Amino acid sequence: MLYNMEINQHILERYFAGTASAEEQAQVELYLQQTSTPGLDHFLLQTWHKANPETPVVPIHNKQPKKAWFYGAAAAAVTAIVGMFAWHAQKELPQQPLAQAFDTLYNAQPNVKTVIMPDGSKVWLNRHATLVYATNYNEQKRELWLQGEAYFEVAQNSQLPFKVHAGGVITTALGTSFNIATGNKADGSVQISLLSGKVGISLMDSSSHNYLRVLAPGEMLSFKQGSLLAHATQFNEEEVMDWKNGKLLFEKNTLADVLAKLQGRYGVNIQLNDESLIHRKVSGKFSSSVSLEHVLKSLQFVHQFNYQRTTNGTYIITSIKK
């Protein structure tokens, strides 16, 4: 049975009240991507009862698909969440305990962050990446949830498989090194790149314990939620690992993918407003210490586009009118 990440009720309260820390916001938004969110169900039910103490709520046993109305949203007032409960109560409330505690690692610094897990596994977090794991990690399970990009060197333990949940898939390893990126492609797909050892890939929402793909060193799997698993392909290790080596490297990438990578690397919003630019091929190498403005100006000169920064910090990319 698939083990789901849970959430602390006090963190949910602070999130919807707008008082959560950056790490807590990242943890909640990663949690809300799951198909099953019993902690949110419990929170909404309790909030409803507080606001309507004399109104009984009877959940309807109807398995409707969860709507991503909350994904990526800023923290909202609890009163607004109460109003949404009328829809959310249509789901069957699970009967599992909600006490599991989690720790969150968020890399807000401009450099790569290195973490040594309790089992000795090493994790390198790219800028703006979030990693969540249970406080009892390495006692019965070794599971992590990733948003962003990270590189893993896994300590061997055949009794406790090492699992990373990211982008709708679970990557399982016993002792190996691999990279996972969830925000480097414009289509929102996740890339798992294996450098050594062996990893198995399975879907998060599958009840099957079988691996749908097993990667060998030098292979990459790209997956987009809602799509079938594609066949593995070879990858350029220098390009995949550029962030860990202090570089920003593009090798015949589409401009759309380049902007997606820059968006994740610099923690900004970039909007491409001209379809004629989407598939334009881009190659280049930069130091990861250079500014986004420096990268955009360099690409702008070669690929003939304009960019401007709006008052809310969003970068708008348009083609140069002839």
Automatic annotation (TrEMBL):
Residues 247-317 form the Protein FecR C-terminal domain. It comes from the Bacteria. One of its GO terms (molecular function) is sigma factor antagonist activity. Signal peptide: none annotated. Keywords: Membrane, Transmembrane, Transmembrane helix. InterPro entries: FecR, FecR_C, Ferrdict_sens_TM. Gene3D superfamilies: 2.60.120.1440, 3.55.50.30. Residues 113-199 form the FecR protein domain. The keyword Transmembrane applies. The chain crosses the membrane at residues 68-87. This is FecR family protein.
